[in-house]
Amino acid sequence: MxxxxxxxxxxxxxxxxxxxASIAVGLARHGKKVAVIDFDVGLRNLDLIMGxxxxxxxxxxxxxxxxxxxxxxxxxxxxxENLHVLAASQTRDKDALTKEGVERVLNELRxxxxxxVVCDSPAGIEKGAFLAMYFADRxxxxxxxxxxxxxxxxxxLGLLSSKTRRAETGxxxxxxxxxxxxxxxxxxxxxxxxxxxxxxxxxGIEVLGVVPESEGxxxxxxxxxxxxxxxxSNAGHAYDDAVARLLGQDRPMRFLEAPKKGILSRLFGS
Amino acid sequence: xxxxxxxxxxxxxTATIAKERLRIIVAQERSARGxxxxxxxxxxxxxxxxxKYVNVDQDAIDIxxxxxxxxxxxxxxxxxxxxxxxxxxxxxxxx
Lengths: 270, 95
Hints:
Chain A is of the alpha/beta class. In chain A, 40% of the residues lie in helices and 16% in strands.
């Protein structure tokens, strides 16, 4: 059974690609056969985050237009041989994607025995984002604890329950999760940032994970190594927990409390 | 919070404001979801017509499509200004 997972958000810059890369690596680390696809045609970036940008020969649009085979376009990850990346086209525009074409590629991945296909959605609610979510069995909605991101997420949740194949055919609905990123427990404690409970209450769906704001994320993208592989980063550990929960394991939420301060910094601030 | 922050007085809890604003807008957008596209335009034109006769607020009109068994019902509520308010407006217009 292949599961199609869309990583989406509506708003840009909240961490969709960072999350797609880490979730894909996390699933592969659990021994699953995984493909991660960049749906952001014209603004390819997943290849950079995965660190395989110099090995892109053929892309998703080439496969859709039958200019190469799927095998030729799948880039095998250097770290996990059961992990494959399908890059977006950098030269075409988003109209190069068609519903039939995407369906054919996803069916081929299913026939190849992939366990998970992670679809990294572009921002917005136009064609690329629509096609990334259309065939999904599961959706991970990436949200920052910030007003515009929360509002856009609610819009995306509405689309997931009306504009997907599962909604249109009356099948079981797309399973929806929230992934809170850029969470800053210190600011939450100070009342400057909405808490996990606030966001959960407004959007009304379960939280798969909370990824703390972390310097490790930028360092990871600089290096082209998904942050989940950084043993010293809390963000990496948070993604590892989220992937374990996705696989049905029970992991308590971590990194929700502000780090304890010493008496001096308590007195004088930091 | 450090000693100096404490002396400056406690900062405003903006997260609470964010949550309240979101709660309202999200509820409003959810109720509009799935309703016909023409509703906002209909609402605006109705407001213009009503305003020719009564001076009502921007948000005095509430339009909703409701299901009643097999058919849909267009539910329209117009809140008219109270007498005192209306008289005041009329007086202002005459002045």
